[in-house]
Amino acid sequence: MEKRIALERRGRDPAQVIDLNLDNCRSPAIIGLTDEYVNLGSLSLINVGLLSLKGFPKLPNLKRLELSDNRICQKLDRLNTSPKLTHLNLSGNKISDIATLEPLKEFKKLKNLDLFNNDVTNVDEYRSKVFNLIPSLKCLDGYDKHDREAEDSEDDELNGNNESSEEDEDSDDEEEGDMPLRSLYNDKLEVEGSGSDFEVDEYGKNGSDCEEEDDEEWAEEEEEKEGENQTAESESTRGKKRKHEDSEPNN
Question: What's 2-161's CATH class?
Answer without folding.
Answer: alpha beta
